[in-house]
Amino acid sequence: MTPVEPLDPNEAFAELGRIRLADIDIDTLLDKIAQLAKRTIPGADEVSVTLLHGNDPQTAAFTGELALALDEKQYERGYGPCLEAAGTNSSLIVPDTSSEQRWPGWARSAAKAGARSSLSVGLPVHEHVTGALNIYATTPNAFDDDAVTIAQTLAGFAAVGLANAHLYETQATLAGHMQKAMESRAVIEQAKGIIMGERRCTPEQAFAILTQLSQDANRKVRDVASTLVENAYRH
Known about the structure:
Elements: H1 9-18, H2 26-40, E1 46-53, E2 56-62, H3 65-77, H4 81-88, E3 91-94, H5 104-113, E4 117-122, E5 130-137, H6 145-164, H7 171-199, H8 203-217, H9 221-234
Helix pairs in contact: 1-6, 2-6, 3-5, 7-8, 7-9, 8-9
């Protein structure tokens, strides 16, 4: 996992508060929320944002492969801390995945993947859309009371920003965003496959390389992935 420079919570809250919604699209806003959470919440190794419309969950932003994989394990099973947090607008901690009993199947998968604890905070977005800010750690008992408070405050700022964007007022808008999210993930998976073939590396290493290319070029991961895939097809 790529080390990130810690950020003072007040700076993170101020940065979210300064965002001009007219100048930013929803994808960029969600990515910003995830990245700020990763830098701000003590104990966080990877972060994702789940959006839930009815029974249709989608990971709309994520900072790394681990967060995406653990979200999708919950969607496949139909249960887990991020889904419950989104559905009940509550905060849920998994202190240690190796001994978690509420969602044992998912917890075993999480422990095997290297996530030893998690924190999910409900994210009310719109009357018909909820979500969750999901924070994963590679150590057990990573999240103390301060971490929970910071995560809840950050989620509150994020929820206000998302609600004010008025981007989820119709099912068509939400469906369009979810379709875009799925297409983005598809091209990222294609790019990872290309990198794995060229460099003989693991999926995690391929995603890390893709992330580094994104940072070096100051472009979104999905845009870098799309360019890589297009170049591969040309050759």
